[in-house]
Design goal:
Length: 131
């Protein structure tokens, strides 16, 4: 009985090994992982900045937003203003609204899987919206 059970387990492992191998992410060196994360963060930042329309009269202003997103391009929680930008944000609500619109209009972020992001992988970045 024990031998039959052992053989069944061995056969199931052999049968499943190609399926399990497909789900594995490539093993990256720390340098490769850092380069991949930088490419993903840069892509999201570029997408956000291309969606952003600076309101007239708000030149020479800068606000930094911290946001987390998943590899599938969706946000993971609400973006928030970094403490250093709170004063500026409080003075210029129209500028903050334009940044909120850019984030809403750019979702979901595209092309992250092609850069190596896993669907459930989480990333945190700070985007500097400045004119």
């Amino acid at each position: 009985m024990f031998q039959i059970l052992a053989r069944l387990i061995a056969l199931s492992i052999v049968a499943l090994s190609p399926v399990l191998a497909e789900d594995k992410l490539p093993v990256l060196t720390p340098e490769e992982r850092a380069a991949q994360n930088l490419a993903i963060a840069t892509s999201v930042q570029d997408q956000l900045l291309s969606c952003w329309v600076l309101p007239s009269g708000y030149e020479d202003r800068s606000i930094s937003i911290r946001l987390a997103f998943l590899g599938d391009g969706t946000l993971d929680g609400d973006p928030h203003i970094v403490p250093e930008s709170l004063r500026t944000a409080g003075k210029y609500p129209e500028l903050i609204n334009s940044i909120g619109d850019a984030i809403a209009n750019c979702l979901p972020f595209e092309g992250l899987a092609e850069l190596g992001a896993g669907p459930g992988e989480r990333f945190d970045i700070t985007v500097h919206f400045s004119s």
